[in-house]
Amino acid sequence: MTGAPEDEREPETQAGPGRPEEARRGVGVLAGEEFSFAQAVGGVRGVVESGAPGLLFVVVYIATRELVPALVASSSLAVLAVLIRLAQRTPVTQAFSGLLGVAIGVVWAWRTGDASDYFVWGLWVNIAWGLGAMVSVVVGWPAVGVIVSLLRGEDQSWRTDPGRRALRRRYTLATWLWVGLFGARLAVQVPLYLQGESAVGWLGTARLAMGVPLFALGLWVTWLLVAAPGGRAERPGQPPSPPR
C-alpha cells in the first residue's frame, strides 16, 4: 500500500511500536489512535515533493511542446528536493524515493521520445500494487491486516483465530478498498495514456488529483475500518476508545 502517493512511492513511514504519535507518517498513521491527514501525506513538504516534479513536467511540456526541457526541469526539481533534505539533515527517504520515480519516468520518456511515457511507470506500479493486494486476499493474507499488525507489533493470529473473524473481515474489506483505489487510477489514466502526447496535460492532472489526495483518503477510510473504536475493540488487550 505504499500509494504511492501515485508518484510511485508513499509518504515516508516513521511509525512503529513505542514511537510517539507525532512521529507517524504515511501508512504509519494506521497504528495511531487518532488520524491526521497532514501526517498521512508527510505534511505540506511531503505533498510538494510528491507532486511538484510531475506538475513542472506538464507545465514546461505544454508551454514548450519540447520533451527535453520538461525532463530536465522535472529531474532538476527532484534532485533539488534531495539536496535540500541533505543540507538540512532531515530524512531523505521520501525525497529520494521521489527522485527514483522521476528518474525512471525521465529515462523511459527520453528513450521513447514520447512525453506520455513519463507517466507509464506509475501505471505499472498501480497494476503491481492492485494485483498484489488482490492476491493477498485470495490467499488469506489481506495486505492491510499484515501491514497494520506489523506496524502495531502484533502477531498474525487474527487470520486463524475464530474469535477475531470480525477483525479479519475488516482487514479484508480494507484491502479490497485499496484494490478499488488502484483500479480507479488505472481506469482513468490508462485511456489518457493511450491517447499519447495529445493528452499529456490531462494525464498529468489526473495523476496529481488521484495521487496524494486519493492516497490520504484511502488511508483515512482504512483507519476508520481497522483503527477506529470498532476495530480497536476487536484487537487483543485493547479496550474500545471513547466516542470521537
Automatic annotation (TrEMBL):
Transmembrane segments: 67-87, 94-111, 123-151, 171-188, 208-228
Keywords: Membrane, Transmembrane, Transmembrane helix
Start and end residues of each stretch annotated as Disordered: 1-23
Presence of the UniProt keyword Transmembrane helix in the record: yes
Listed Acidic residues bias regions: 1-10
A Pfam cross-reference name: DUF3159
InterPro entries, per the entry: UCP010219
Superkingdom of the organism of origin: Bacteria
Name of the protein in its database record: DUF3159 domain-containing protein
Species of provenance: Actinotalea soli
Taxonomic lineage from the root: Bacteria, Bacillati, Actinomycetota, Actinomycetes, Micrococcales
